[in-house]
């Protein structure tokens, strides 16, 4: 039994002590070496080394004008950081399962190749690298021999595996941010990691097409200028987030080029959460939208569509098709885009959908719509949701109108709509109110 | 925890180091890998399972944690997170270490994780003199040795006394 006056922490079982030390930043863990003899090398046996921003400065110096970080020239910063890393590496003993190199101010250099070579011979399982300074860092070939890798996270570097590379057979999660990689290499990397569950990809360079093949994939988040993303053998996918184009301007690609996108909805039978942008939606629409999908998406609970224009018939028809095919939806989020065409309202006939008894939104609890400018199709859609969702708790509408008078008109229109759910709360925010305060309409 | 209204087959009895008995529902006990393994290996649930290293006060806390986590559905992760942070709030160091040792012995990963994190949070950003005081760690370094340790890891002590 422990009382509060004896030295308990120095005598807990080794695995508990390791656990406590691994909850600390590397700097705090190293500082425990001075507590007593027993502690001197306790940190050095930890199976993880995380060189991150806590290494070089603490929070107080980060925002301080006197911070040495910003006064030092970059060369000196880099040298100092490399010295710290070498000191730590020389004192460390035992296997390294997790290695992180994410320090602001570290430049791409050949010494980093050596560090990666060193950890690659150590059965590394978790590797995170971010080098943001200097030339684009090209990953050394030693990385591709880390076949025990379970988690790989790379920022701002170049990934070019040798032709004989056969994939990371144990990899569970792969995060690539601003990584330069050929699209066919990326596709084959994904399909050569058979256990992969989580994929995150973010890049703003244009890529042609991505083929996502992954029998174990549960989550795919993809932000980048792809012409098409197609999904095959992804029967376990639960979460999909795709953003092909950050801002809605002219279409990045022609509709013909994005037409492969439709594969998605046919290959995700257990999808739970889906977020798409207008660009991907256009791609789906281009290959023809059925009234209802061939497979009902029974698990889908959460749909988010970004930069959707209610004035565009194809985009709205995808939205309606998704709603029709997903009987258990709980939350719908639409970030609308008040596009130029909405000035000439296209007469979308929601009444046809409204009249349909085959649409049920019996589980719908929450609706969020932003950038609502009060066009007829928008109001028709809101009317449709309110009429079809008996369990609705809250509808939040953020207005994007030009004048207070417009806003008042929209609010007036909204209050007239019939609600199937007696407890539904309608919250409207807009320019006449503070950003923070929502007013009950 | 000690109610015995339901069918006894679905419950087992745990005995603390100070002799207090706790009747525990099976699904609550399964939060502990140790108990799960004992049940899997045909250990009769009629027997009293002694936990000689865990006192009644700690065991009651541990079982409170297990019950909350066993009863909550997976969709209530947010609720569990706030329960976890409330659970350890204002706990004195002695009780916290008893809890971490019990969680380690009974193999309750979630509890071990949050208790270890709580102890680490106490060490974080503090000068070592203060850490020594909080945990009653006796400094057995000679001044020369202490200076050598500091020199060995000079970068980590920048900004600390």
Automatic annotation (TrEMBL), chain A:
Residues 357-429 form the FBD domain. SUPFAM superfamilies: F-box domain, RNI-like. InterPro entries: F-box-like_dom_sf (IPR036047), F-box_dom (IPR001810), FBD (IPR006566), LRR_dom_sf (IPR032675), LRR_FXL15/At3g58940/PEG3-like (IPR055411). Residues 12-53 form the F-box domain. Pfam families: F-box, LRR_At5g56370. This is F-box domain-containing protein. It comes from Rhododendron griersonianum. The lineage of its organism: Eukaryota, Viridiplantae, Streptophyta, Embryophyta, Tracheophyta.
UniProtKB/TrEMBL annotation, chain B:
It holds the Pfam family Skp1_POZ. Pathway: Protein modification; protein ubiquitination. Residues 109-156 form the SKP1 component dimerisation domain. Keywords: Ubl conjugation pathway. This is SKP1-like protein. Belongs to the SKP1 family. InterPro entries: SKP1, SKP1-like, SKP1-like_dim_sf, SKP1/BTB/POZ_sf, Skp1_comp_dimer, Skp1_comp_POZ. Residues 11-70 form the SKP1 component POZ domain. It comes from Rhododendron griersonianum. It comes from the Eukaryota. One of its GO terms (biological process) is jasmonic acid mediated signaling pathway. Gene3D superfamilies: Potassium Channel Kv1.1, Chain A. Part of a SCF (SKP1-cullin-F-box) protein ligase complex. PANTHER family: SKP1. Involved in ubiquitination and subsequent proteasomal degradation of target proteins. Together with CUL1, RBX1 and a F-box protein, it forms a SCF E3 ubiquitin ligase complex. The functional specificity of this complex depends on the type of F-box protein. In the SCF complex, it serves as an adapter that links the F-box protein to CUL1.
């Amino acid at each position: 039994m422990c009382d509060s006056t004896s030295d308990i922490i120095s005598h807990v079982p080794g695995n508990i002590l390791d656990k406590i030390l691994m909850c600390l930043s590397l700097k705090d863990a190293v500082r425990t070496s001075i507590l007593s003899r027993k502690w001197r090398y306790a940190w050095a046996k930890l199976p993880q080394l995380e060189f991150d921003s806590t290494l070089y400065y603490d929070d107080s110096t980060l925002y301080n004008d006197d911070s040495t970080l910003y006064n030092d020239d970059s060369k000196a910063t880099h040298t100092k950081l490399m010295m710290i890393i070498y000191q730590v590496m020389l004192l460390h003993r035992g296997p390294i399962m997790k290695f992180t190199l994410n320090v602001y101010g570290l430049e791409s250099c050949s010494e980093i190749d050596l560090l990666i070579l060193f950890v690659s011979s150590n059965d590394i399982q978790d590797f995170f690298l971010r080098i943001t300074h200097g030339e684009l860092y090209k990953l050394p070939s030693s990385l591709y021999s880390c076949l025990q890798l379970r988690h790989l996270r790379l920022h701002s570097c170049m990934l070019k595996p040798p032709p004989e590379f056969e994939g990371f057979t144990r990899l569970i999660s792969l995060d690539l941010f601003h990584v330069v990689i050929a699209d066919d290499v990326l596709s084959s990397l994904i399909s050569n990691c058979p256990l992969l569950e989580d994929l995150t990809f973010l890049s703003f360079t244009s890529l042609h097409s991505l083929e996502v093949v992954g029998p174990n994939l549960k989550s795919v988040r993809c932000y980048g200028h792809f012409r098409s993303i197609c999904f095959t053998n992804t029967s376990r996918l639960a979460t999909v987030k795709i953003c092909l184009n950050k801002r809605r301007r002219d279409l990045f690609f022609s509709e013909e080029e994005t037409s492969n996108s439709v594969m998605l909805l046919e290959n995700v039978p257990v999808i739970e959460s889906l977020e798409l942008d207008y660009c991907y939606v256009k791609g789906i629409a281009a290959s023809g939208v059925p009234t209802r999908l061939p497979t009902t998406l029974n698990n889908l609970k959460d749909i988010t569509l970004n930069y959707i224009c209610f004035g565009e018939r194809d985009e709205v028809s995808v939205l309606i098709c998704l709603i029709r095919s997903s009987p258990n939806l709980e939350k719908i989020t639409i970030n609308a885009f008040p596009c130029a065409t909405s000035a000439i309202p296209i007469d979308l006939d929601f009444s046809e959908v409204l009249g349909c008894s085959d649409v049920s939104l019996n589980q719908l609890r929450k609706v969020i719509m932003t950038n609502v400018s009060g066009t007829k199709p928008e109001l028709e859609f809101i009317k449709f949701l309110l009429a079809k969702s008996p369990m609705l708790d809250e509808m939040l509408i953020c207005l994007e109108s030009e004048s207070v008078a417009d806003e008042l008109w929209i609010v007036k229109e909204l209050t007239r709509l019939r609600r199937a759910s007696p407890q539904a709360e309608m919250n409207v925010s807009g320019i006449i109110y503070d950003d923070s305060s929502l007013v009950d309409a | 925890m000690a109610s015995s209204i339901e069918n006894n087959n679905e419950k087992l009895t745990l005995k603390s180091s100070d002799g207090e008995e706790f009747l525990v529902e099976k699904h609550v006990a399964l939060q502990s890998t140790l108990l799960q393994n004992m049940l899997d290996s045909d250990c009769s649930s009629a027997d009293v399972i002694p936990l000689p290293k865990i006192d009644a006060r700690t065991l009651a806390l541990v079982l409170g944690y297990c019950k909350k986590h066993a009863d909550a559905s997976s969709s209530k992760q947010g609720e569990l997170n706030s329960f976890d942070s409330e659970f350890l709030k204002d706990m004195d160091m002695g009780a916290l270490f008893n809890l971490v040792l019990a969680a380690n012995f009974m193999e309750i990963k979630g509890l071990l994780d949050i208790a270890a994190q709580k102890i680490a949070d106490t060490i974080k950003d503090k000068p070592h003199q203060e850490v020594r005081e909080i945990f009653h760690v006796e400094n057995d370094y000679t001044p020369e040795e202490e200076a050598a340790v500091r020199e060995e890891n000079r970068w980590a002590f920048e900004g600390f006394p």
